[in-house]
Amino acid sequence: MIHAVYDITGCNMPAPDTGPLLDAMRATASQLGCTVLGELPVLFQPHGTTCVLVLAESHLTVSTWPEHQLAHLDVFTCRADIDPEHAITPILDVLGGRAIHGQRIHRTGPRSAFRV
Question: With 32 labelled, which of 43, 53, 59, 115 sits at a CA distance of 20 to 30 A?
């Protein structure tokens, strides 16, 4: 399993429309080799967005805090065709930011259910 989280700072487009953000998230999922089963964009007032892609392989989420030029990205999947750090480029492009801090989270499960 792969669980990676990224803090994206210095976003010069921290409040994108959900359409372009979801398009970028779909592109990231495609690069990872994942299948999108559902999506949920949520707009907050006065600002901010959380978009979720439910993947056959788990999930991809992006939450934005425009007042801080900040976004947070969470990628959790049981497979990936490329490193998530390279696959998130479309999202970084839409937000106009850079991943300043990325972290892999070690997850465990029954050996029969997950490849080691």
Answer: 43
